[in-house]
Amino acid sequence: MELVELEFNQVSVLALFLSMDKLSVSHNVKGGDMVNCTISELQPLRAEAEDIPLDIVYEDDNVLVVNKPAHMVVHPAPGNATGTLVNGILHHCSLPTLASSNQEAFSDAEDISDDEEFSSSISGASIRPGIVHRLDKGTSGLLVVAKDEHSHAHLSEQFKLHTIERVYISLTSGVPSQSSGRIEVPISRDPNNRIRMAAIPGSNKHGQARHAASRYKVIEILAGGGSALVEWRLETGRTHQ
């Protein structure tokens, strides 16, 4: 007996039909069984203006700097069509509803990192207008948004050339053995949770992971040595790094 998992272009098969009987996705199939599945057509993503309170720390005619809270997604993607930072920005800047192509919808589900070219036209049909970098859903922090094409081009180039330095603060469980150092571990898909990335040593030997490196410094030891406040400076910008 073999457990078979079907997947087509990141679209999960919700129902399997075996010998005309409806079965659950966890059903064990055997050799010779005929499996039919129905896959719904992928619908283009839409980004509509939503009156979402934004913590704006700086704004002028060219750029907008927003303090993104934890658990807010930066832009619409499969599974997160509303309530994103982009929805709030569209309302704040009085921009119209935007729609993406199916190709862009698929690309948003991939591992796009800050140190790759992450450009989306301000005026084009994109669901991430002005976004030149992004933060993970669970990460809070400052995010720069371009308000015109000129600013967008310059910001995109700065991220591409690594002339912008990103600093993160984390609260750790336990205290690092050294007060400062550098961590270089490849990041790949978590084999137990496909929508999450994980540090998997040695995985890049098989071309399954991407190089990731970070430098850290312990700022303060807390809770009698049970925790620490740690500063991180990223050399790369991988998803979930």
TrEMBL record:
Task: Please name the Gene3D superfamilies in this protein's record.
Answer: Pseudouridine synthase
Any one GO molecular function term:
RNA binding
Q: Which residues form the Pseudouridine synthase RsuA/RluA-like domain?
A: 62-241
- Tell me the Pfam families matching this sequence: PseudoU_synth_2
PROSITE patterns the UniProt entry points to: PSI_RLU
| Recorded superkingdom | Eukaryota
Stored InterPro entries: PsdUridine_synth_cat_dom_sf, PsdUridine_synth_RluA-like_CS, PsdUridine_synth_RsuA/RluA, RluA_PseudoU_synthase
Any single GO BP term: pseudouridine synthesis
Q: Which reactions is this enzyme annotated as catalysing?
A: a uridine in RNA = a pseudouridine in RNA
Family the entry assigns: Belongs to the pseudouridine synthase RluA family.
What's the protein here called? Pseudouridine synthase RsuA/RluA-like domain-containing protein
